[in-house]
Amino acid sequence: MHISKKNLLDTHQRIKPYIHNTPVLSSGLIDQIAGAQLYFKCENFQKMGAFKMRGAINAILQLSDEQKKRGVATHSSGNFAQALALSAKLQAIQAYIVMPENAPEVKKKAVKGYGGQVIECEANLEARETTLNKVVAETGATFLHPYNDYQVIQGQGTAAMELIEEHDDLDYIIAPVGGGGLLSGTALAACHFSPKTKVIAGEPLGADDAWQSLEKGELIPQANPQTIADGLLTSLGDKTFSIIRDYVEKIIRVEEDEIVSAMRLIWERMKIIVEPSSAVALAALLKEKDKFKGKKIGIILSGGNVDLGNLPF
């Protein structure tokens, strides 16, 4: 499917009543450290605490009345689970969420709080998929993929659209990459609304399937990812991969201590709470400072759903 400028504009109009147009913040001190002008798009202030609300509500709004009656289902260890549960609640439909048993308790609680039905399974992709297929067979619910879905990708792209609306002269936008929904949406938004803005991704070295896939020119699935950035453990999908391959300039890999120090910098200097996955984009910029010297850079802070009982500092 070709995602056009009009697709993205229509998506933004459709989801506007259900999302926050999140603030864009800056920090003189972080600018000094980076040697560049940074504009942080704060999706940690989005409903349910992460950008994923955008894609989830867009996908749900596109369902037929018949589909809505039977509900929606997905598998997710965290943010998409919450986003889908809340989006379903806003449309008064049932959400069935398959979550690995080791998903953070705070995220399971949030899903239940939004009225989602949590079905637990073993903590591996195979168990997630088999359990999900069973749920779909029993309920007739529509499966919505957390990122490998064009409606979800278009929804995620609206964060960068809003950023570009405020700052139309960015040299770069940097976003984290896990499954690639946010990154591919961001790349499409830049391509359609600010073609001179290049898109770069930050990725944890311990979960670098996107970097490997771009290097090889084919999808390399994640094998046993190890990173504190728990939102970035998933592998790219075929839809996100093809967009990223065509529209993203580069992926910068960062070490765990670089993620933690970038996260700490944001907490200390900007006085806002972000989860480790959000800090990956800033960590990528700081890692290759020379490349970005003197430039204007948008950074997407993807979310703030951090487990406060388990902080890395």
UniProtKB/TrEMBL annotation:
<dbReference type="InterPro" id="IPR001926">
    <property type="entry name" value="TrpB-like_PALP"/>
</dbReference>
<keyword id="KW-0456">Lyase</keyword>
<dbReference type="Pfam" id="PF00291">
    <property type="entry name" value="PALP"/>
</dbReference>
<dbReference type="GO" id="GO:0070179">
    <property type="term" value="P:D-serine biosynthetic process"/>
</dbReference>
<dbReference type="GO" id="GO:0030378">
    <property type="term" value="F:serine racemase activity"/>
</dbReference>
<keyword id="KW-0663">Pyridoxal phosphate</keyword>
<dbReference type="GO" id="GO:0000287">
    <property type="term" value="F:magnesium ion binding"/>
</dbReference>
<dbReference type="GO" id="GO:0030170">
    <property type="term" value="F:pyridoxal phosphate binding"/>
</dbReference>
<comment type="similarity">
    <text>Belongs to the serine/threonine dehydratase family.</text>
</comment>
<dbReference type="InterPro" id="IPR036052">
    <property type="entry name" value="TrpB-like_PALP_sf"/>
</dbReference>
<dbReference type="GO" id="GO:0018114">
    <property type="term" value="F:threonine racemase activity"/>
</dbReference>
<feature type="domain" description="Tryptophan synthase beta chain-like PALP">
    <location>
        <begin position="16"/>
        <end position="303"/>
    </location>
</feature>
<dbReference type="GO" id="GO:0005524">
    <property type="term" value="F:ATP binding"/>
</dbReference>
<protein>
    <submittedName>
        <fullName>Threonine dehydratase</fullName>
    </submittedName>
</protein>
<dbReference type="GO" id="GO:0003941">
    <property type="term" value="F:L-serine ammonia-lyase activity"/>
</dbReference>
